[in-house]
Amino acid sequence: MNFADSRHVDELLSRNDLTKSESFEDADFVIVNTCSVRKHAEDRALGWIKSVSNRVKKLIVIGCLARHREEELRKAGADIVKYQFELDDIISKISNNVKSTEKIPSKIAAEVPIVRGCDRFCSYCIVPYLRGPVISISPDDILNEINDLVGRGTRIIQLLGQNVCRYEYKGYSFVDLLRDVAEIEELKKISFLTTHPADLDDSIIDTMAKTDNIMKYIHLPIQSGSDRLLKSMFRGYTTELYRKKIIKIRDSIPDVRITTDIMVGLPGEEEGDFLSTLSIVKEIRFDEVYMFAFSPREGSLDNLRKDILYEGERKRRLKLLIEEQRNITMEKKRDKIGRTMEVIVIKRAKTEELFFTIGEDGSPVLIEKQAEPGDLFSVRISVLKGGSLFGEVISG
Ligand code: SF4
User: Fold this and answer.
1) SS3 for 371?
2) Among 1, 162, 232, which is best to mutate for testing ligand 1, by the most ligand atoms less than 8 A from CB?
């Protein structure tokens, strides 16, 4: 999410016709986006800010750290400390003085935040405390932003939020937004991130299934395969409900690609709970799993628990899970060989004759064909080499 926020800042700067400097010394201002997901990341950011503060004209610090360690950031040399959402205002003020005259094209793929914050309060997570409750951005602002990006060359949009399913603006729902975004001319692909199993309803899945330019890709974090642990994490669903969502998605959207997040070594996780997680991973066969070992985090409820597993055991479980999923990921990729899919070109690869593309299910696919970013092709997946899928262009 933080990477996406940084990319959004980048886009905001481009839209205000601001260009990147080669060095700190040349820059009119430097923006540092901070993350609070781990204490270690916070301390490193503070140290780094201190070390560069006397080399820059104006230092702006945004992100979660700005929310709860403002005083320390100011002492470290930050001139402006703001939460990310207030950045639009700062940028428009600064840009009046330092604007470049050049109109900067936007990237072929861009992320657009649609909802801020989260009010689910999962026991291990500090996001609701740092980012606050759910606030949905007005549809007008979102659609204007997307139209502006498309006008500058963007062809793929990812709608972002901690939980996009909770988007709601004065009776206008996430499905309404999906439909309106899908109608924007010249916008070729749309995806969204992240969904929550308890909030993902059939209308979202049905809209995905019916709308050609919405990618056949969904990231649905399961976190654990143990109902006992899901309950203690306050996730708000059971494995039974999760399975039902997967069945509905797979029945509605043929060849859909499904990814998930899993955390192992949670406080109170017994060997049996961990084995349930391994078992659901084998059963569902996700295309990809983003896997983490629990790390005690100040500010989250789980940090207060006495039954935190020792680090060696957390690492052992993570290693076993990674090994299990690695094989499944490769099998799922191999299953795509022979399949025909539409891809959109992103950029030229390092090897001159190859181009990076994104398939209709969000899979990265390499093709050998002269192309421009944004071109659409129909390809047949021909081979899996070193973990990368290659496609032969059939038409386009
Ligand atoms: S839904 Fe996601 S962002 Fe919200 S509290 Fe749970 S883990 Fe954190």
Assistant:
1) coil
2) 162
